[in-house]
Amino acid sequence: MDFFTKFKLFYKKNKDRPWGRFLVFLKNFCYKHKYLFPFLFFKQDLSVAREFFSNLPGFSKAGNYLEEGKKKGLFRQKFSSGHSGDFDCMILYALVRAIKPDVVVETGVASGRSSWIILEAMDENKKGRLYSIDLPKYYSGKIPASYLTREGKEELCGFVPEGKQPGWLVPEYLRSRWTLILGESRKELPGLIGKFDKIDIFYHDSEHSYENMKFEFEAAWPKIPLAGFLLSDDIGWNNAFKEFLVKNKHKFDCAYRNFGIILK
Ligand SMILES: C[S@@+](CC[C@H](N)C(=O)[O-])C[C@H]1O[C@@H](n2cnc3c(N)ncnc32)[C@H](O)[C@@H]1O
Q1: Does the CB atom of residue 109 touch ligand 1 within 6 A?
Q2: Does residue 106 form part of some domain?
Q3: What pLDDT sits at residue 20?
Q4: Is the minimum distance from the CB of 82 to ligand 1 under 6 angstroms?
Q5: Which domain CATH number covers 99?
Q6: In the chain, N or C: fewer CB atoms in 10 Å?
Q7: β partners of residue 227
Q8: Do the Cβ atoms of 132 and 182 come closer than 8 Å?
Q9: pLDDT at 34
Q10: What is the pLDDT of residues 63-106, one digit of tens each?
Q11: Sheet containing 201-204: which strands, arranged edge to edge?
């Protein structure tokens, strides 16, 4: 049992005791100021990702790829705005390594962190192609401004620094397996999906409105084969993911840090 699992058990057992208030304070403080402890949170994400794979039916060995993935350069580069988190990237890497997909489709590229990790895994597999759709939004200055969406969530006004291209983080040596389509997912996704008999993994990380998430999930699902995956970031922004789970038969699902995973 690793440190975080032990801490979780200890926390659950003791948080309601009088001195347990200190534990609650400590946990909340660390979470609120997690940028002060990137190493701690990376370790915690890794621990949850390992646990996830040990529970995922038929994929218990996929967790071994986490060790390989964590050495990839992108985990040391955190300078793009609104990028997929470490946990998401760990899962993407290990899943792509484990199922060795022919086709992965993602929506939402920004500076290209998730595209980069998927392509790293495909490069190790020596197999597969990634199709990404992105409607690029640029920002100037050090950090992008933000606004409140209709659903009351804080969204960034821009994701790619002015002067850079969407997906600029992705190294040159990985690009031969990548097709990047610029445009709105609602317009581009149906045509793209229509080209394939199957999509082994679909990953949503574009516009997180209820309508758009529902649209993308429903468009991709029929092309995902049994033992394929639908993944989504920011599932807590609205009910689209929850409703989709209820309506569609699947083998397994789980969620962590707003990242949702469905095994068909
Ligand atoms: C959260 S970011 C994606 C982060 C990316 N997965 C990464 O790891 O860096 C969302 C991206 O989706 C783009 N986007 C927003 N609305 C979109 C839409 N309707 N269709 C396609 N892309 C969209 C944004 O411009 C932005 O680049």
Answers
A1: yes
A2: yes
A3: 80
A4: yes
A5: 3.40.50.150
A6: N
A7: none
A8: no
A9: 63
A10: 899 999 999 988 887 656 678 888 999 999 999 999 999 999 99
A11: 178-182, 129-134, 103-107, 201-204, 229-232, 259-263, 252-256
Question: pLDDT at residue 260 above 90?
Answer: yes
The number of domains in the chain is 1
Q: Structural domain of residue 253, as residue ranges?
A: 71-263
Beta strands in 111-170 (DSSP E): 129-134, 138-139, 146-148, 154-156, 160-161
132 CB within 6 A, ligand 1 = no
Task: Please state the rounded mean pLDDT for residues 104-122.
Answer: 97
Calpha distance 202→224 (Å, rounded) = 8
The finding on whether 136 has its CB within 6 A of some atom of ligand 1 is: yes
Judge whether 58 lies within some domain. Answer: no
Q: Is 184 in the pocket of ligand 1 (CB under 6 A)?
A: yes
The alpha carbon of 40 and the centre of ligand 1 are apart by a number of angstroms equal to: 27
pLDDT tens, position by position, 135-176: 999 999 878 888 888 888 888 889 999 999 999 999 999 999
Q: Whole-angstrom Cα distance, residue 254 to residue 239?
A: 15
Query: In this structure, what token pair is assigned to residue 106?
Result: 């993602």
Q: What is the mean pLDDT of the chain?
A: 90
Atom in ligand 1 nearest the alpha carbon of residue 203? 6
Judged against a pLDDT cut of 90, whether residue 60 lies above it is answered with: no
Give nearest CA residue, ligand 1 atom 1. 82
pTM, 2 dp = 0.88
114 lines ligand 1 (CB under 6 A): yes
Q: Which mutation among 77, 90, 135 tests ligand 1's pocket best, with the greatest number of atoms within 8 A of CB?
A: 135
**201 in a structural domain:** yes
Residue 2 maps to a domain: no
Q: Does any ligand 1 atom lie closer than 6 A to the CB of residue 205?
A: yes
**Ligand 1 atom, smallest distance to 115 CA:** 8
